[in-house]
Design goal:
The protein contains 5 helices and 5 strands, in the order E-H-E-H-E-H-E-H-E-H. It is of the alpha/beta class and 141 residues long. The chain has a single domain, classed as 3-Layer(aba) Sandwich (Rossmann fold). Helix 3 links the parallel strand 3 and strand 4.
Length: 141
Amino acid sequence: MLRKYNVLIADDEPEDRFLLKLVIRKRAPRLEVVGEVADGEKVVDYLSGNGPFADRQRHPFPDLLILDLRMPLMDGHEVLAWLKTQNLPPLAVAVLAAPSPETNRFDVLRSGVDHYFPKTAELHDLEQMLRALEESLAGKA
């Protein structure tokens, strides 16, 4: 049986979270969404096990964080900076970012993320991205 990898999706767009969950469920058998949050502060709470995320049976620590850079309260860049200061269990980070002048792929990769993907609503592109993430996680195991 294939090992499943827990995924936390952090994106402020409900449609984007829905699409990611759908493609994961249908096309990425090794990934399992264990949580979804809509802002950076909730990412911190989830990963820290704070508040409603304290129950690790209901909210297990993820193997993979799929992180949107543009979110309210605390954006993805701030989450990445926070992650550098923490002593957390192993966590792969994949950033999804809409192309923009202020989002430089190389700067994001230098910030310590494992993967960077342009944000897309194309199913084929999402499937390829998720397959690459599955392979990467399996390679680290």
